[in-house]
């Protein structure tokens, strides 16, 4: 069974003691403890933190056991609803014969300290199990392990069961089972997910870890978190709701004759509180902890020109409740707005949602003199202080200067000028210029596409978090690394090339900048 961690799930906080995982910054997780010859087990070494982490040896062979390093990555974890970030080193373990073996010592280095894997025994069984007459039984059945008569259960959980309207939370699915050697869990593609009165989004590179065995309905059951889809949810209406209704398909991926089962999920019951009364007039629904900034406000401007300035609201929380306020001054108009939300490390050291919202305004000046714009007010509900807070920006004084005088250009008197070229020559030159430009553009595009494919081929099989980690270690920014990783995905070369052709000029330049950075690094 895949082991997803050693920390206790908070719902069963009093029933299961905490293991000694707290005593070390590095964890060694080996699974499964029994597998067939020709297959492999996995050793996952996890460091809790952002310091330097590496494997001292990438290939080990000892007493018939081979350990191979297959890559590294990073992961955001929600353990007992406490969010943290960790680094992961992955190894494959296999043998050349059946029997009981001891895992060779695997040594890693984290923050200039060395850590060695604990003694671990595992069993390798025969490659396959056949009946005595294979001709009459071409599809043998494994009957060593009797399946449990208990049906699996999939339940939806949230990190909070009581919260405010507009407050972001995290939701995920957990499989509870007995009788599977290696559980298989996929969401039924024919079924949608029900989140009534909630805005939902899928969080990237976020995982949830709970205790591998918990008491469920007074019975000890094993657990598996469905980490392919971790959701960020924001309630838009107060009340009591049941969320997470859908269907899953489960089974045993190591048992040949195992039948897949369709499992209805157990929904999570949550209570969404309405915000306290006496809301400020400037409150539009923002919940969290934010700050207010003013940029690009001009000190002076000429009459009948437009003064542009930008208001930035950023901080811990979602942007769903942040909206521009209607201005009492008709001369101030909203030009544009941008909103961005990420799941990242916060100033408190925990991980959560961080939003940046920018409003661009324009002020149309009509008369000369000094202008004092009314203060900009922004209100939000602070979860830390459990009260409404209002922030304000005092605009500096702006001076309106006299209207600019535009000088009229006088045409020179006609003189003995040479005759202009004929219209046919001008048309010919224009057509020649257009074709030359198109030819150059096609040549440049073909060259860029060729350079891009060469870079993709140089990555080999690195994709997703492994590719992101590789790029960041080679000096590429996190934003550009995630852009390229998302562009490649798990697609084949023709699909990747087609996607590159559809990129905007800005994104294409970012991708080519990554190639130049990698070439410089080499």
UniProtKB/TrEMBL annotation:
Signal sequence bounds: 1-23
Protein name: Oxygen tolerance protein
Source lineage: Bacteria, Pseudomonadati, Spirochaetota, Spirochaetia, Leptospirales
Pfam family, one: BatD
Domain of life: Bacteria
Keyword Signal: yes
InterPro entries cross-referenced by the UniProt entry: BatD (IPR025738)
Transmembrane stretches, start-end: 422-440
Originating organism: Leptospira terpstrae serovar Hualin str. LT 11-33 = ATCC 700639
Keywords of the record: Membrane, Signal, Transmembrane, Transmembrane helix
């Amino acid at each position: 069974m895949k082991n997803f961690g050693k920390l206790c799930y908070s719902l069963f906080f009093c029933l299961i003691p905490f293991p000694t995982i707290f005593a070390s910054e590095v964890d060694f997780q080996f699974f499964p403890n029994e597998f067939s010859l020709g297959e492999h087990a996995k050793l996952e070494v996890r460091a809790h933190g952002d310091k330097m982490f590496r494997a001292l040896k990438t290939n080990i062979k000892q007493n018939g056991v081979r350990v191979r390093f297959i890559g590294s990555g990073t992961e955001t974890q929600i353990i007992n609803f406490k969010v943290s970030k960790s680094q992961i080193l992955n190894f494959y373990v296999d043998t050349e014969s059946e029997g009981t073996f001891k895992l060779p010592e695997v040594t890693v280095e984290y923050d200039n300290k060395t850590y060695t894997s604990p003694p671990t025994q595992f069993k390798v069984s025969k490659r396959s199990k056949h009946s005595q007459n294979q001709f009459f039984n071409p599809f043998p059945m494994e009957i060593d392990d009797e399946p449990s008569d208990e049906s699996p259960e999939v339940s939806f959980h949230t990190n909070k069961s009581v919260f405010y309207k507009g407050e972001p939370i995290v939701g995920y699915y957990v499989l509870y089972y007995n009788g599977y050697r290696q559980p298989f869990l996929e969401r039924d593609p024919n079924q949608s997910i029900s989140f009534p009165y909630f805005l939902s989004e899928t969080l990237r590179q976020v995982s949830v870890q709970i205790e591998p065995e918990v008491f469920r309905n007074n019975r000890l059951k094993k657990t598996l978190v469905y980490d392919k889809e971790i959701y960020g949810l924001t309630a838009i209406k107060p009340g009591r709701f049941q969320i997470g209704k859908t269907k899953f398909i489960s089974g045993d991926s190591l048992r040949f004759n195992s039948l897949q089962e369709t499992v209805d999920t157990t929904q999570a019951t949550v209570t969404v509180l309405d915000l306290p009364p006496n809301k400020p007039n400037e409150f539009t629904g923002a919940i969290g902890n934010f700050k207010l900034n003013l940029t690009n406000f001009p000190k002076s401007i000429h009459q009948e020109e437009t003064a542009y300035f930008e208001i930035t609201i950023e901080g811990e929380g979602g942007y769903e409740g942040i909206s521009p306020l209607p201005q009492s001054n008709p001369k101030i108009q909203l030009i544009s707005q941008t909103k961005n939300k990420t799941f990242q490390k916060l100033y408190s050291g925990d991980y959560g949602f961080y939003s940046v919202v920018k409003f661009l305004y324009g002020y149309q000046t009509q008369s000369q003199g000094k202008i004092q714009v009314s203060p900009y007010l922004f209100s939000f509900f602070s979860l830390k202080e459990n009260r409404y807070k209002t922030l304000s920006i005092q605009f500096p004084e702006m001076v309106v200067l006299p209207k600019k005088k535009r000088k009229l250009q006088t045409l020179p008197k006609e003189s003995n000028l040479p005759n202009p070229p004929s219209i046919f020559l001008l048309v010919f030159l224009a057509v020649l210029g257009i074709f030359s430009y198109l030819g150059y553009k096609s040549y440049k595009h073909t060259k860029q596409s060729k350079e891009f494919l060469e870079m993709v081929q140089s990555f080999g099989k690195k994709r997703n978090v492994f590719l992101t980690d590789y790029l960041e270690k080679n000096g590429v920014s996190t934003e550009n690394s995630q852009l390229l990783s998302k562009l490649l995905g798990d697609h084949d070369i023709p699909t990747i090339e087609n996607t590159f052709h559809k990129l905007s000029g800005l994104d294409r330049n970012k991708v080519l900048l990554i190639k130049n950075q990698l070439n410089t690094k080499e």
